[in-house]
Amino acid sequence: MFFKPALLYSPGKFWFIDMKIIADNMVKYSSKKKCCFLRQELRKESMNFQFCHSERSEESILQKHLKRKMDSSVTSLHQNDICGKYSSLMGKAFLFFELLGMTIKNWKTGIFISILLSLALASCVQEPTDPAATDQNIYDNAMVLCEGMWYHNNASITKIDRENSEIVNHFYSASNSGLNLGDLGNSFVKYGDTVFVAVTTSKTIEAFRISDGAHVGRIEFSGHNAPRDICLGPEFGYVTDLYGHSIHQFDPKKIEYIKTVKTGGPAPEGCVYANGMIITANSGYGDYLAEEPGAGTISIFDDHLNLRDILFVGPNVVELAYNTRTYKLYAMYYNTPSAREKGEKGGIVEYNIGSMEKLREWTVDATSMAFSAGGDSLLFISDKNAGFIDLVSNSEVKILIENPDENENWYSVHHSPTGDFWVCNALNHQRDGILHIYSIDKVLKESINTGVNPRRVIFY
Predict the structure, then answer these.
(1) Angle made by CA atoms 82, 85, 90, in degrees to the nearest 5
(2) Sign of CA dihedral 254, 257, 261, 264
């Protein structure tokens, strides 16, 4: 992706600085001199400038490039260096040029050089961007959660270990003799070397180690419960309960249940942890509970599960996604089956997480959201194709990759750390599926056999 020059303000003057060039040279400098800012220091320091670029006021272009490209092995500058020589606003401006390896005696010379360099840059690319290459070896190691079929007890995990050139289907069962993952694996999350899986019909949360697949714990529910979607906060884990119209809190360190509270809306499905809040999507389960109070809403809790607010999104709101880079929440509603038969579509709604103000809405029949690796696009499946929305430069809904076979059901799409697009193909939903891997140029590179109904992916 290419960027326009940013605007740097100092007392009484404005300076046009090309941030991509600065970022690229800072990376070169840091590799050469073995020193760089910590991400936290970069965020703190760069926020003292006024960057004029698109809608991303919360995160500068400089931060974006550095976070992708900095070698994690290099050490940080001492805080004294930041608070001393570079403490003033003008000093920070000099710091940028000093990191370029330039000795600036005349501001006009430096600014002139930056402006000349910036003329080579074009406008923003409108598709998900290829993650920047680094000096490190990056592998697309991943776990794929395959839901299985209802009442068939055949949920499974496909482990893809690129580093060791290994693909293992039914990884959990193969690693734990006599144990199956269970019936309907709907969601999973990574917690260190542990993965937690919500197994809906089996009424359990299963925990196993990524490194060897060993089962390390289980949380069991009884009665009319159906654990659906899991999210993690800094201290606790949370799982929605589709049948119990509630959300459960658990301790991921001890793998123990803590408590349950009602969500204030029927049939909660998706959930996210966002900026100190837990948010649930209360679907209403299609037409089944669509007329119940709270159907089609999101419930907002604090991290101790005290209910703070309930907002209406749209009928049959099922999935949530939180962008930690832009602090925006995305809620996807499918609409009810009866409404869809009449030609009414679903949609995606964007919210500011601080105020919960509704910002934008797209009308689209979409399922299974995931962010691009850089967080600049939202990927989804629509009409059996893989689609995307450019969240930065425009708000159009576009096709990313077309499904070549209308008889096959693409179930989800994901953007890997190395820039490939992973498409989970559930085929007819009744037999083992396939994972298709496309390059950033949307060329099919590889197809991998998986379990039944592959949908969720965790890269590690």
Answers:
(1) 95
(2) positive
